[in-house]
Design brief:
Elements: H1 14-38, E1 44-49, E2 55-60, H2 66-81, H3 99-132, H4 139-165
Antiparallel strand pairs: 1-2
């Protein structure tokens, strides 16, 4: 794909490194938690929760490995997408003058998305395991509103910030 955009190396800053480390740590913790909890689980585990956090679907416990597997694929995919910021979508024309700040902003968004996905997968895995053990979860009171609210507010904030850096 030819974009005509400059291909520059975006140097990592401290926040970028911290975000990558946190995402990788959460992924490792997700895998470890799943592995350590797996033998204690019954053959059928909760696999779907309604909006109130009540279990309304069950699956075989092997399905719990789907979250770490998807987490690995997502982590690797988002990590490598960041290697090619000139291929990301932008709402402004990318030039030599504004490439670095827009590429840095775009790669940072992807890093935050990676962290957000790992965090969501971790919370879901924890909720599934705890529900399988018969423990009551309080996920219904905050999880869904947080995810929906973040999904609405973050793009708005990002658009405002992108307009600010490109003035």
């Amino acid at each position: 794909m030819k974009t005509g955009r400059p291909k520059i190396n975006v140097p990592l800053e401290g926040l970028d490194i911290i975000l990558d480390i946190l995402s990788a740590t959460l992924l490792i913790l997700l895998i470890a938690y799943t592995a350590l909890s797996y033998s204690e689980l019954p053959d059928r585990i909760p696999s779907h929760f309604n909006a109130r956090g009540e279990v309304d679907g069950y699956s075989e416990k092997s399905m719990l490995w789907l979250l770490p597997a998807l987490g690995i694929v997502m982590f690797i995919g988002l990590y490598f997408i960041n290697k090619f910021p000139h291929l990301h979508n932008y709402m402004v024309n990318i030039t030599e003058e504004n490439a670095l700040k827009n590429y840095r902003f775009s790669t940072r968004i992807v890093r935050f998305a990676n962290l957000f996905v790992m965090l969501i997968f971790g919370v879901i895995a924890y909720n599934i395991v705890e529900s399988s053990k018969g423990n009551i979860s309080n996920i219904d009171s905050w999880f869904l509103p947080l995810v929906i609210g973040s999904s609405i507010m973050l793009p708005i904030i990002l658009l405002i910030y992108q307009n600010k850096i490109n003035k």
